[in-house]
Amino acid sequence: MKVTIKEWNAVATWHWDIPEDEVCGICRVQFDGTCPTCKFPGDDCALVQGRCNHAFHMHCLMTWIDLETSKGLCPMCRQKFEWKDKE
Ligand SMILES: [Zn+2]
Ligand SMILES: [Zn+2]
Ligand SMILES: [Zn+2]
């Protein structure tokens, strides 16, 4: 039997595939919430994970990488921040 999801309530069921108590290393807000500049969680405020396994809101990371002082390093472990390849 083929199951079709007819209705998808993105707001109520939305959840990132990471531990619930994990917070963004930059703004310290949980990933089920948004970065300080966004109102709604989801693809518009995506999550990025680096090879070092630290994760951040995309917007938080962009802001951080833009800073000259960041030198392209992960704010958590100070290794060069490289985006983790999607499997
Ligand atoms: Zn954040
Ligand atoms: Zn955002
Ligand atoms: Zn890191």
From TrEMBL:
One of its GO terms (cellular component) is anaphase-promoting complex. GO terms for molecular function: cullin family protein binding; ubiquitin protein ligase activity; zinc ion binding. InterPro entries: RING-box_E3_Ubiquitin_Ligase, RING-H2_APC11, Znf_RING, Znf_RING/FYVE/PHD. Pathway: Protein modification; protein ubiquitination. Keywords: Cell cycle, Cell division, Metal-binding, Mitosis, Nucleus, Ubl conjugation pathway, Zinc, Zinc-finger. Residues 35-78 form the RING-type domain. Pfam families: zf-ANAPC11 (PF12861). This is Anaphase-promoting complex subunit 11. It comes from Penicillium rubens (strain ATCC 28089 / DSM 1075 / NRRL 1951 / Wisconsin 54-1255).
